[in-house]
Amino acid sequence: MKEKKKEEELQDEVTPETEEQVDETVEAPEEVIEVSEVDSLKIELTEMEDKFLRARAEMANMSNRNKNEREQLQRYRSQDLGKKLLPALDNLERALATEVSDDQGASLKKGVEMVLESLRFALKDEGIEEIPASGEVFDPNLHQAVQTVPAGEDVAPETIVEVLQKGYKLHDRVLRPSMVIVAQ
């Protein structure tokens, strides 16, 4: 009975103002939910923008990498052909080094010389050049030492004394190092 009495008293105390306060407190959780929903959407938007920027940067990096690879392929496209032609170039130079005594041999030597010059021109046109070696300071990146000799008064140490086989490079890439004898 006491409980019924208390309920009736409480109902009598409820005024329109207290009803609004009760309604506001009931609505407040919905507003909190709404605000947290907006915040979560903002966070999601920020994450999506970040993903978009990362994807865009990755695409730009891939494009640059592909462009660089294409340039490298274009620049060094004649590398394999050059490596295959170097032994023929060596053989032509050896043929020119032989001594001839008759007119027929001299005319054949002249023809070999013309072929050698046209081959050198074609290789140079593609960017293949001879690596300077004789009298140069030994560079292990460009030269391959196959023998050493004692340095004399007229030859400084680490100097290339003799070239056994010419080396060639394509732009800045070594196709074949020079085989040399170095003074120690």
UniProtKB/TrEMBL annotation:
It comes from the Bacteria. Residues 9-29 have a biased composition (Acidic residues). GO terms for biological process: protein folding. GO terms for cellular component: cytoplasm. Keywords: Chaperone, Coiled coil, Cytoplasm, Stress response. InterPro entries: GrpE, GrpE_CC, GrpE_head. PROSITE patterns: GRPE (PS01071). It holds the Pfam family GrpE. Residues 1-29 are annotated as: Disordered. Residues 38-79 form a coiled coil. The keyword Cell wall biogenesis/degradation does not apply. CDD domains: GrpE (cd00446). GO terms for molecular function: adenyl-nucleotide exchange factor activity; protein homodimerization activity; protein-folding chaperone binding; unfolded protein binding. It is found in: Cytoplasm. Belongs to the GrpE family. Participates actively in the response to hyperosmotic and heat shock by preventing the aggregation of stress-denatured proteins, in association with DnaK and GrpE. It is the nucleotide exchange factor for DnaK and may function as a thermosensor. Unfolded proteins bind initially to DnaJ; upon interaction with the DnaJ-bound protein, DnaK hydrolyzes its bound ATP, resulting in the formation of a stable complex. GrpE releases ADP from DnaK; ATP binding to DnaK triggers the release of the substrate protein, thus completing the reaction cycle. Homodimer. This is Protein GrpE. The gene is grpE.
